[in-house]
């Protein structure tokens, strides 16, 4: 996976701070970059008869003749079949087609584009902004995440610039944006908060001090992990429900996941209390 | 003389002259400054009445003195606009400061204002000088020429200048009512010659969910 930083390749960024005398850069269809960032917060897509998938309401302006269609639309059925495999949240996505240049942005969050070369990337659903139809979008079996597979470019937003890390690594759950080409993460808890009656009481009540970093996601293998530089999550985008079958995580079906019958679990509790006391 | 200090603070150097700025937007000054509230946007009795009638309220102060005065508004990004006899159209809430020599007024916007949820009227700034407008995230300045008209999401529109015609363009079809809309149901189309300021963020508009 290759990433394109928010800085555009050419000098003279619009709204560049601290440069007295220089007026703002004025863009027209010729000077706007093609499939690249205009500034850290705005991305420009060039359409020449091709199509892009984008999340509803993220287009801020466009030149040329561009049409936006909901993807339930009959003419786009073939496209949906080849590159859109999450029919259950199809109403959140639109297809832009036509020719011209289109600007995308998301609530003034940082925007970056990435290239996948016959790869795969799993990303938090609220962060994905747009992608080329040469990529296939699928729901991840990790609830709240989406997976892109194939070759092509996609645009993702993050709260603050994105940092790239290589496994093995443990990351804070709120800072995780996504991961590429490596196995899905697992939970990791600090040992001291898991063992003994005192550890259980401490996790339960917070007495004795919690650092707030007792729980991480652990990545192993080879690949790339994408982190945002803040722990403020972007609002989540609903990925759609999964079929209520046994064995499907997040489906709520009997036999899927969830605690065995017994005492109800209290919020903030890491393990069942009766197990902790050896009952 | 307007200059940006960082991207969120406006510094104005003054030598006995004056600027009009949003009430309460001064964050610091050195030298000698006098602040005076201007009723009705400093447009006299007529301005007071029209602003009251149109609901395009603008509380403005006049800052006069010698030295440097710094302005900021809720950590929003500031964009400088230079006017050479042309007219800037901007929402009163996005206008941070103008040279005292610039005339401000109100104008009817029609459907565009309604689609943004900003009301039917907007503020104009006219003359020779500089103005500072605020936006959520740094604004992108897009040029409109007769061969390149531009369509803008009403929620991302901040301001425009020059001689532009705007029309309201709707993508609402029967599919919108079936819940399969394109998500971009309304756009403002700009034609003519001028500049449009667009912010990388969308206000909540009626069209946002369609």
UniProtKB/TrEMBL annotation, chain A:
Annotated segments matching region Disordered: 1-25, 236-279
Record-linked Gene3D superfamilies: Mitochondrial biogenesis AIM24 (3.60.160.10)
Composition bias, Low complexity: 1-24, 256-268
Lineage of the organism: Bacteria, Bacillati, Actinomycetota, Actinomycetes, Kitasatosporales
SUPFAM superfamilies: TRAP-like (SSF51219)
The organism's place on the tree of life at top rank: Bacteria
Name of this protein: Ser or Arg-related nuclear matrix protein
């Amino acid at each position: 996976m290759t990433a394109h930083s928010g800085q555009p390749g050419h000098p003279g960024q619009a709204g560049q701070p601290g440069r007295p005398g220089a007026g703002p850069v004025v863009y027209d269809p010729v000077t706007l970059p093609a499939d690249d960032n205009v500034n850290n917060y705005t991305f420009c897509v060039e359409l020449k008869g091709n199509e892009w998938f984008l999340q509803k309401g993220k287009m801020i302006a466009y030149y040329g003749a561009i049409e936006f269609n909901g993807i339930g639309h009959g003419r786009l059925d073939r496209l949906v079949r080849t590159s859109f495999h999450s029919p259950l949240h199809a109403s959140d996505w639109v297809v832009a087609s036509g020719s011209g240049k289109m600007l995308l942005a998301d609530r003034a969050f940082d925007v970056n584009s990435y290239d996948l070369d016959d790869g795969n990337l799993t990303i938090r659903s609220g962060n994905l902004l747009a992608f080329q139809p040469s990529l296939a979008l699928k729901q991840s079996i990790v609830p709240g995440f989406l997976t892109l597979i194939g070759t092509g470019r996609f645009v993702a937003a993050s709260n603050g610039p994105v940092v790239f890390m290589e496994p093995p690594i443990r990351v804070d759950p709120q800072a995780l944006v996504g991961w590429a080409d490596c196995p899905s993460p697992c939970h990791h808890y600090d040992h001291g908060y898991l063992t003994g009656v005192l550890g259980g009481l401490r996790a339960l009540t917070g007495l004795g001090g919690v650092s707030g970093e007792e729980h991480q996601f652990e990545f192993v293998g080879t690949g790339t992990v994408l982190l945002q530089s803040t722990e403020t999550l972007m609002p989540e985008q609903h990925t759609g429900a999964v079929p209520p079958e046994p064995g499907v995580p997040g489906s709520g079906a009997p036999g899927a996941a969830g605690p065995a019958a017994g005492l109800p679990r209290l919020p903030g509790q890491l393990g069942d209390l009766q197990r902790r006391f050896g009952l | 003389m307007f200059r940006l200090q960082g991207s969120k603070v406006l510094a104005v150097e003054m030598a006995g002259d004056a600027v009009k700025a949003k009430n309460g937007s001064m964050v610091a000054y050195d030298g000698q400054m006098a602040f005076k509230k201007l009723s009705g946007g400093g447009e006299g009795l007529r301005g007071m009445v029209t602003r009251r009638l149109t609901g395009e309220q603008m509380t403005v102060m006049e800052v006069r003195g010698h030295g440097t005065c710094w302005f900021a508004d809720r950590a929003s990004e500031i964009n400088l606009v230079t006017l050479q006899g042309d007219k800037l159209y901007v929402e009163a809430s996005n206008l941070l400061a103008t040279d005292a020599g610039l005339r401000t007024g109100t104008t009817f916007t029609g459907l565009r204002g309604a689609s943004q949820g900003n009301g039917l009227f907007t503020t104009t700034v006219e003359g020779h000088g500089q103005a500072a407008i605020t936006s959520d995230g740094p604004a992108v300045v897009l040029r409109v020429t007769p061969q390149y008209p531009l369509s803008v999401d009403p929620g991302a529109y901040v301001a425009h200048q020059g001689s532009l015609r705007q029309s309201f363009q709707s993508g609402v079809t029967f599919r919108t009512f079936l819940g399969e809309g394109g998500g971009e149901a309304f756009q403002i189309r700009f034609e003519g010659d001028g500049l449009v300021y667009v912010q990388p963020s969308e206000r909540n508009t009626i069209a946002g969910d369609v």
